[in-house]
Amino acid sequence: MTLITTERLAELGQENICLPEGRQFIDWLKDFKFSNAKYINVTINGDEVFGVTIYTFTHAYAFRITRTYLGCTAGTRMPRAGEEWTRGSDLPDGKFTKETLVQILGAILFYEAQKVVDPIVPAPVSPPANIETVEPSVEP
Predict the structure, then answer these.
(1) What are 118-139's pLDDT values in tens digits?
(2) Handedness of CA 98, 101, 103, 106 (dihedral sign)
(3) Exposure check for the chain: N or C terminus, fewer CB within 10 A?
């Protein structure tokens, strides 16, 4: 049986997750600092598939878990100006392992990262032409 839901994990409770790999996935997330059941929205709670979505300010990350598979997609939460659709992207996926989860979380980190602006080298400042420059005196 598959139950489509939109319930926070905090209200559902980890013990009510049908798929054992879904419970294992939540255990892995608990290993990370700042993990909180209130940040995890359970979208599918079935015997064969478990799905959760985690939101940031600009993106939604939808994880899908089966007995052998772990994957994630990223989607923007709002369209760009002039567009009526939202953009998305597949993130790493693979076997249901903690290594796959770490690859996904690394991809999320850099998906969210903002480019650091190129440094600006200030132009040298020359004294105005009508001012005399005085050499500093060196005392012995």
Answers:
(1) 888 887 877 666 666 666 666 6
(2) negative
(3) C
